[in-house]
Write a structure and sequence with these properties.
By secondary structure, the protein is an alpha/beta fold. The chain has a domain of 92 residues. 35% of the residues lie in helices and 17% in strands. It contains 19 helices and 20 strands. Strands 1-20-19-16-15-14 form a 6-stranded mixed sheet, with helices on one face. Strands 3-4-7-8-9-11 form a 6-stranded parallel sheet. Strand 15 and strand 16 form a beta hairpin. Helix 8 packs across helix 11, helix 11 packs antiparallel against helix 12 and helix 18 crosses helix 19. The longest helix is centred in the middle third of the chain and has 28 residues.
C-alpha cells in the first residue's frame, strides 16, 4: 500500500523542487545558523552523524552575471542553504589594491561576517606557482621543486622528490597578499574557512618513476609498482602538507586576532583529492591510482578534505543512464570513505557535480542527450544529483560551471541542487535518514567493474544499486542502459527497520517498477525522472511516498 507521507509539507516540497524560496518570509539569521551548524559540525567519523548538506558552486562570479557573492547573499536571504564561496584574493605586490576587486568582496564578505557564515575561497592549484613563477622555476636544479630530467632540464611539472621548502614558501605567497589582508580585516573571526584548490597542476606520475634521477638516487631501479606508488604518495603527502602549512603560517601572520582566527579556522581541500571512481573499470586503471597495499588512497593524509567529481564529462561516453555513469562509478567510494575516516577522522567530504554542459563544443553532453532522443532538463539533472547525494551524503554538493558561465544560462540547473539540499533540511524524515541511515548494500550482485581488484579489497561492499524489474540482463557492458537507479538506507534493527528508498528514471518516467529491498522484498512504485522517495516499514509492510 502506498500513501502520502507528511501531506502538510507537500506545497513546501513542490516549491523546493521548483527552486523557489522554501519560506515566504525567511528568517535570515535562522538560515545562517542552518548553514553554519553543518559546516562546522564534526565529521560522521567523529560524531556518528552525517552533517546536513549544503549547496555551492565552482563559479565564483568574477565574470559579470555569474554565481558571485552578491547573488549568493540573495539566495541565502531567500532561505537557501548555500555555503558562501569567493575567488581567492590575487597574489599581487604589497602596494596593489584593485578597487573593482575590493568591491567584489566588500559587501558580501561583511554580510557573511554579520551572519557568522563559514566561507570558501576557491582558486587554481596553489602549487602552480612553483612552475609558473620564475623565482621558483629558475632555481638551480638541486634547489628546484619541479621535475629535473637526466639531462638536467627543468620541466613544467612538480616533483615528489625535490626540495620541500619552496612548497612552504609558495603557500605563504598565497596568504600574505594585500588583498588577503583586506579580506581578513573584513571578516576577522570566521567559524570556518575552506581553501579549495583546483588541484590539476601537472605532476610527475609514478609510472615514470625511473625517468627521475632523484627517485633513482633514493630507491634505485627495479622496484615493483606497489613500492613506486607508495614512494610517490609519501612524497606528495610531505610536500602538499608543507604547502598548506605555509598557507596557514601566512594567515597567522596577519594582524591579530584575525591572523590566529583564520589560521585556526582554515582547512585545505582539493578537487578530486580522493580515491579512484574508476576502480576496476578496465585493466589499466592502476596507472591512474596512488594507492598501495594497506592504503586505498593517500588523500586523507595529504589534504584536510576532498571534492571528487560526480561528472558526466563531455569528453568521454560517461552518462547518467548507463553502466558507465557517475552513479555506478561512485559506488566505489563508500568503502574508501570508511578507510578515509580511519586515516583522518576530520576529513572534509564533499562532491563536485557537473552535467557536461559545454555549449560551444560539439561533444556538449546536452547535445548528446538530444541526439539520443531524451533531452536534458533540470528535473533530470536533479534526479541524478539526488542519487549521488543519498549514496554519498557529502557535506557540500558543489556544482562546476566555467568561470564565464552565468546564472541566466545555467541558474535553472543550480536550482535543483538548492532544492535537493533544502529538502533534506526541511523534512524531518529525510533529516533523520540523512544523519543516521545505513546505506544498504545489494549483495545479490557484484559491481560491474571487476578488473584487477587487489585481494585486500575484494570483500568490500561496492554495489548499492537495488535490483529492479527493469534491470538489464547481465553481463553488462559500459554502454548498457539502466532505466531506473534505486538505493536504500535503513534505520533500526532487523524485523523493525524502516527503509528510505530513493529512485530516479533518467531517460523517462517508469510506471509500476518493482524494486527489491535486501532482506525485505519487493515494493512497487512509479519512478519519476526527477526522483522520488518512499519510506518502507519492515513490520507493517507499508510503503509511504515522501511528498
Amino acid at each position: 500500500m502506498i500513501r502520502p507521507l507528511h501531506a502538510a509539507l507537500a506545497a513546501t516540497m513542490i516549491s523546493l523542487l521548483a527552486g523557489a524560496a522554501p519560506r515566504s518570509q525567511p528568517d535570515v539569521q535562522a538560515v545562517a545558523r542552518e548553514i553554519a551548524a553543518p559546516a562546522t559540525a564534526p565529521t560522521v567519523w567523529e560524531s556518528g552523524l552525517f552533517p546536513l548538506p549544503l549547496a555551492a558552486s565552482w563559479n565564483t562570479g568574477c565574470w559579470p552575471g555569474g554565481f558571485g557573492p552578491d547573488w549568493q547573499m540573495e539566495q541565502i536571504a531567500a532561505g537557501h542553504r548555500l555555503l558562501p564561496w569567493f575567488q581567492t584574493p590575487d597574489i599581487a605586490p604589497a602596494d596593489w589594491i584593485g578597487n573593482a576587486k575590493l568591491a567584489y568582496y566588500e559587501k558580501a564578505m561583511r554580510r557573511c561576517a554579520e551572519l557568522r557564515l563559514p566561507i570558501t575561497l576557491i582558486t587554481t592549484q596553489w602549487e602552480s606557482r612553483l612552475t609558473l613563477e620564475p623565482k621558483y622555476f629558475n632555481l638551480p636544479a638541486d634547489e628546484n621543486p619541479n621535475f629535473v630530467s637526466a639531462s638536467g632540464k627543468v620541466e613544467k611539472m612538480v616533483c615528489p622528490f625535490g626540495p620541500v621548502e619552496p612548497w612552504r614558501q609558495a603557500g605563504r605567497d598565497w596568504t600574505t597578499s594585500t588583498m588577503m589582508r583586506r579580506v581578513q580585516a573584513m571578516y576577522p573571526d570566521p567559524p570556518r574557512v575552506i581553501f579549495l584548490s583546483n588541484n590539476e597542476h601537472p605532476k610527475l606520475t609514478w609510472i615514470k618513476a625511473e625517468t627521475s634521477p632523484r627517485y633513482l638516487a633514493k630507491y634505485g631501479k627495479g622496484r615493483d609498482d606497489d613500492f613506486k606508488r607508495k614512494a610517490f604518495a609519501d612524497g606528495w603527502i610531505e610536500r602538499y602538507r608543507a604547502l598548506q602549512a605555509g598557507m596557514r603560517a601566512g594567515l597567522a601572520a596577519a594582524t591579530q586576532p584575525a591572523g590566529d582566527n583564520w589560521a585556526k579556522a582554515a582547512i585545505f581541500i582539493g578537487y578530486d583529492a580522493f580515491g579512484p571512481p574508476h576502480f576496476g573499470r578496465w585493466g589499466g586503471w592502476m596507472e591512474y591510482w596512488l594507492g598501495n597495499a594497506g592504503r586505498i588512497d593517500p588523500s586523507p593524509a595529504m589534504w584536510d578534505g576532498g571534492s571528487p567529481s560526480y561528472y558526466t564529462h563531455n569528453w568521454n561516453p560517461i552518462s547518467d543512464h548507463t553502466a558507465y555513469s557517475p552513479q555506478i562509478e561512485s559506488m566505489n567510494w563508500p568503502f574508501m570513505l570508511d578507510d578515509a575516516g580511519k586515516a583522518n577522522p576530520k576529513f572534509w567530504w564533499e562532491v563536485s557535480a557537473w552535467d557536461g554542459n559545454s555549449p560551444e563544443e560539439k561533444n556538449d553532453k546536452r547535445k548528446t542527450y538530444v541526439a539520443e532522443g531524451v533531452p536534458a532538463t533540470p528535473a533530470r539533472y536533479g534526479g541524478f544529483i539526488q542519487y549521488g547525494m543519498w549514496l554519498l551524503r557529502p557535506r557540500v554538493v558543489r556544482e562546476f560551471r566555467g568561470h564565464m558561465d552565468t546564472v541566466a544560462k545555467n541558474g535553472a540547473y543550480f536550482e535543483p541542487i538548492m532544492a535537493a539540499v533544502d529538502r533534506v533540511h526541511a523534512d524531518a524524515t529525510l533529516r533523520e535518514f540523512w544523519q543516521k541511515g545505513k546505506l544498504a548494500p545489494n549483495r545479490t550482485a557484484k559491481h560491474p567493474y571487476q578488473d584487477r581488484i587487489p585481494d585486500e579489497f575484494k570483500g568490500r561492499d561496492r554495489w548499492f544499486l537495488l535490483t529492479t524489474s527493469l534491470e538489464p540482463p547481465r553481463p553488462w557492458k559500459l554502454d548498457t542502459k539502466i532505466p531506473v537507479f534505486a538505493l536504500a538506507l535503513s534505520l533500526g534493527e532487523p524485523g523493525t527497520r524502516r527503509w528510505l528508498v530513493y529512485a530516479h528514471a533518467p531517460i523517462g518516467e517508469q510506471k509500476g517498477v518493482r524494486i527489491t529491498l535486501p532482506e525485505f522484498g519487493e515494493i512497487t512504485v512509479d519512478v519519476p525522472v526527477a526522483g522520488g522517495f518512499w519510506v518502507v516499514d519492515e513490520k507493517t509492510k507499508e510503503t509511504e511516498a515522501v511528498k
